């Protein structure tokens, strides 16, 4: 038989456990997603307006007649990060020798201090604001990158959004010629034919979690602007043609809905829905419906894809990551742990940068 003190102690422990279980959600502070203030939203709207006006003026002046000698189209590489850009040496090798064919823009969460950014990225940072998963701040950051790239250089005709865990799978020239063509005639006509450029972004209506994601902000909240039949899922990272980049920064209608905070945090991935939904509603024929950034979702941890580690890095891995079911090989891949840099640099000259 148990003595009375033990029985009383056990009863007290059970009682306290039950009290904590049922009352903790009301007592402890609930973590809410990061919201976007009116001041920040107005600040972004001003940036978007300036970028739109600048792009319109460039179009009106006919870019081929600007003060450039034999201008060539450029790719804007947009890095969205909340940690150190550890793969900078690999990207430096990737960009080497192509200085007049690309621009780099970095949106770094200002609440995170980066350790001595590599010279490649040092002067490429745009005015940034805080970002957080499961919040519309990642949408705002991507739109901010697009607007800055549009405002900075009218020769930017493609915009590739990447993360700090992304790596290239091919040489720069391979990617450049895949987008613009490999002849002088095609490059010369890239500006006059940009209205036909395709964007590479995953757009899907087959996600089994789509119903839960649609009502993450509350039932019927997305109506009438975004009916369920128009709601789409896709990848966070993409390559947009210039006309679609402009479409994104001009949008106010869908943004009013997607900027709202989510109630169900387990089904809230705004950045995976805003861009696919907007482009699907506005110009589905102008989009590939697939992404050119390879991600391994077979092993997910807390909503994150598989992270490659040093023992996995090999030529065979790069070759396998390139393979796709589309007419294009994958251009980029994620996500790689920071300690993959050295093994990746070892195989870069003979594998990654050789097509």
What is the CA-atom radius of gyration, in angstroms? 23 Å
How is the biggest beta sheet arranged?
4 strands, mixed
Mean pLDDT: 90
Distance between the termini: 78 Å
CATH topology: Spore Coat Polysaccharide Biosynthesis Protein SpsA, Chain A
Q: What percentage of the residues does DSSP assign to strands (E)? A: 5-15%
Kindly state the number of beta strands: 9
Instruction: Give the strand line-up of the largest sheet.
Output: 2-1-3-6
Globally, the shape reads globular
Task: Domain count, please report it.
Answer: 1
This entry's quaternary arrangement is: single chain
Helix and strand succession?
Answer: HHEHEHEEHHEHEHHHEEHEH
Question: What percentage of residues falls in helices of 4 or more residues?
Answer: 25-40%
The helix count comes to 12
Poorly predicted ranges: 18-30
Which structural class do you get from the secondary structure elements? alpha/beta
Quickly name the level 1 CATH class.
Alpha Beta
CATH architecture: Alpha-Beta Complex
